[in-house]
Structures are given as structure tokens and as C-alpha cells.
Amino acid sequence: TVPADVLVLLLWAPWRGLLGAPLAELSGDQDFQLFLHKNLEFTRKIKGDAAALQRVMCATFQLCKEEELMLVRRDLGIAQAPLERCHGRAFQAEGCFSQIREGLRAYHGSLAAVLELLPEHASLVETLQLDAANLSSNIQQQMEDLGLATVTYPPEGRSPLPAFSSHFHHQVGSFIILANFQRFLETAYRALRHLAHL
């Protein structure tokens, strides 16, 4: 959990130095800071649930280490949702928010593969899907409130869900989807934290 004093800083901190984003006029905007604060916590919660599902995959199928699956990963060709607009010098608020929103929608769909594989853990998977949809909606609403352009990035020519040729590939594919989702959420979390940074 985040210490109370850090949450207060996140909530009230005037943020500045945002590279590439015409949002300087929002410095100190309490509604925007509240949005960031709530959705940082929400992103952390979703990340925790994705990690819990990865532990289920480890316990159920002995799929625990991504580095051991690199050859199969290449064969499956499961793409990571892009977030280059949320990184370093390329950071651009409208683009970053749009990519987070689009990525959450993609993972909402991809998690169907995990649901098929782990029907006995349907409630956890469905919660993860619902939370991904809700976070995407939160970001969409905030972009509209801020008057930011919503950019839709076209898919990069790949279906988010490959046709798995075997049950083992379905297991590995689901593990990789969860691992990708974890990395995606970590980048999204850092981007939101950057916006709230002192």
C-alpha cells in the first residue's frame, strides 16, 4: 500500500514539465489530480489481479517463467499492445492516454483465452476484464473532460487472439497474454504517476 503522505502528494501535487503535452494549464487542477490518484490505485489493483492469475497458471500448468517459453512465444506471435507514446522523450499525453485506452480494450478481448482455459477461476478473469473495461472508460471520459483528441491507433495487422494449435499452446499463449498485460499495466502506471509527479 502507498503511505498516506505519498497519496496526499499524488493527489495535490502540481505537476509540471510534461514533455510534448499541451496540458500546462491543468497544473494544480484538483479534478485531474483526483482522476490520477484514483486510477493509479485502480491500475495497481488490476496489476495485482493479473499477477494472481499468473500464480494460478503456475500452480495449475507449471508455467511459471516466461524466459523458458521464448521459442513457443515466437511461434505464437502474440503481440504486446503498443505504449511507445508513454515512454520518455516520446511521451505525449493525448497519445499515451489513447494507447492505454486501446490497449485495455485489446486485453479485455485477449483475456477470453484465459477464461476458456481456467473456467474454475472465471470470477477472477471476469473481474479483470470488467476492471480493464472500466479503466478504459475512465480514461476516455477524462480525455473528453479535458478536451483532448481521442486518437484510435489501427491494429498492427494481427488478431489479438491467435488460433491455438494445441492445448499446450493455449496454456502458453494465455500465460504470455497475462505477462504482456502485466508489463502493459506497469507502463501505464508509470505514465499516470509521471503525470502526477511533483
TrEMBL record:
Pfam family of the protein (one): GCSF
Keywords of this entry: Disulfide bond, Glycoprotein, Growth factor, Secreted, Signal
An example Gene Ontology CC term for this record: extracellular region
UniProt main location, coarse: secreted
Keyword field contains Secreted: yes
Domain of life: Eukaryota
Family annotation (Gene3D superfamilies): 1.20.1250.10
Residues spanning the membrane: none
Assigned protein family: Belongs to the IL-6 superfamily.
Protein name, UniProt field: MGF factor
Provenance organism: Trogon melanurus (Black-tailed trogon)
